[in-house]
Specification:
Elements lengths: L15 H13 L30 H30 L4 H33 L7 H29 L10
Length: 171
Amino acid sequence: MTGTAEWREAPGNSGAGHSRARWGRTAAQGGGAPGGDGPRYGYRPLWVEEPARRHPVPDPVRAAAVRAVLVIAVTLIQAMIAFLCALAGSWLAFPMVMASVAATVVATWAAVDVWVTRQVWNQRHGVLSEPSSTARALRRERRARRREERAALRDQERIRRGGGAGQLSHS
């Protein structure tokens, strides 16, 4: 019997390989179907993990977003404490309300910082896009046309210079 400790793995590793290896082992042993009547053929895993090609957001924008979430969370906790202190009639109510107002200003700045960081990143690095196949074909045609024009100009220049090798007559 296989224990669960055998299937655990380090973070970041995909579990898809283990499930395939395990299925191959059980199918080879003939325990594929629940009744034990032999292996199931054509088995496909539910999903196959593929590594992400890139992060959905650039690192500076992600860092700003994490900062903003933390600041906003602290602000909400502070506001809740201020509200509860006010309900209880505690002397801490006034200082907590003042701190909550200041924290709200900081939280707003953090949220705007995410937006500004994203805009700056897009301006500096641009949006990488692949041209469509039609754009690629048009560019290819334009290059071919330019190549033909340059070849024609070279031929004209060679004729103009005259006396080139391979001339049949001097008329």
